[in-house]
Specification:
Blueprint lengths: L2 H17 L4 H8 L3 H8 L10 H8 L5 H6 L26 H9 L1 E11 L2 E9 L8 H28 L1
Antiparallel strand pairs: 1-2
Helix pairs in contact: 2-3, 2-4
InterPro entries: Cro/C1-type_HTH, Lambda_DNA-bd_dom_sf
GO molecular function, one term: DNA binding
Protein name: Helix-turn-helix domain-containing protein
Length: about 170
């Protein structure tokens, strides 16, 4: 399978995961695979033996054979995975500040995270792609590394703040 098709599968998996509100670790747990497997798939590093594909397809709510459909240039049908709750409420976008709605409308979602701050507070962080990644897949990998660094620093800052208030 050509590298461009690997990148297309990786991009589609990452996009679907984010649309479902899942982190890589959540998808790995749902699929029963390692987080490294999910990272590799999303980075376009897909091995020649697709033994894990059906597990990931099922966790994403895609029918069997969706990876093959993607590799042929198609798109799997959109559906929620079994047991998925769907959106908690339909009007949440209307409650966001206008500048946030504008950013979300203008850019593609790369990933998201929720950081617990304690005392009944949490931060929801959205990473948006403001330009398309490089076609060879390296742009998405660099963005993933940068995003993981930001997530780590956010969690470290939240933990440090929690320690200061105790």
């Amino acid at each position: 399978m050509p590298l461009q098709r690997h990148a297309a599968i990786g991009n589609a998996v990452a996009t679907r995961r984010v649309r479902l509100g899942l982190r890589q670790s959540d998808l790995a747990r749902e699929a029963g695979v390692s987080e490294t497997t999910i990272r590799n798939i999303e980075a376009g590093r897909i091995g020649g033996r697709p033994t894990k594909w059906p597990l990931v397809e099922r966790a994403l709510g895609w029918p069997p054979g969706s990876f093959e459909t993607l590799s042929a240039g198609g798109q799997p049908p959109e559906s929620l995975p079994p047991g998925s709750r769907g959106a908690p409420c339909d009007d949440w976008p209307d409650r966001l500040p206008r500048r946030i709605r504008d950013e979300l409308a203008e850019h593609d979602l790369f990933d998201s995270d929720v950081v617990e701050l304690g005392e009944g507070l949490r931060v929801v962080v959205l990473a948006l792609e403001t330009a398309p990644p490089a076609a060879d897949g390296t742009g998405r990998r660099r963005r993933a590394v940068r995003w993981e660094g930001v997530r780590h620093r956010l969690r470290a800052a939240a933990a440090e703040e929690e320690n200061l208030t105790q």
